[in-house]
Every structure is written in C-alpha cells, then in structure tokens.
Amino acid sequence: MVLQSESRKEEFQKYLEKSGVIDTLTKGDHRAIINPTSEPICLSVLVNLYECPEKPPNAINFIKESMGPAPPGGDVEKLQAKVKEQQAALEAKEKEILELKQKV
To answer: Which DSSP category does 32 fall into?
Structure first.
C-alpha cells in the first residue's frame, strides 16, 4: 500500500515536471498562472490535479482554468500601484474634511 502511494506521488511529480508546472512555479513565472490574492486556492488546485484519474495533457492550462479568470485590468503590479495611489488620495481627502470641519 505504501509503495503504491509512493509510486503515485512519483508519477505525479514526473507529470508536473514534464508539463512545465514545476519550472513555472519555481522560476518566478507563477504570476502567469496564479493570482497572488488567491494563494490558498493554489494548494487545492494542485490536490485536485493530483487526484484526477486522467491527467490533463496541459497541466498549466488546468491550473489557469481552476484558478479562475485573471484580475480585471490584468497586471497585478499596476493594480497594486493604483490601490496605493487611491489610498493616498483618500487620506488627503480625509485630512481635508477634518480641516474643513474644524473651520465650521
């Protein structure tokens, strides 16, 4: 039973290596397939892939489809910069509101 489990794990690892998933995850290209805001989902996606009786021919596409659509607007760095910019604008407006309330 233990040998069967180990054999299954080894087959899965070879499958991930052959399909390019290991390289994609370990070489920093993971942004192409994983939305950083949904990291807890990543493990369940890999578990689902592991438990698939018939492995899909393209593991990376399986992961992309399982993770859901990319964030609107695309580039995560641009979205993070936009959030920081809007947070700064909000803080400025809140400060301005406080100053106006003090004058009233």
So the answer is: G
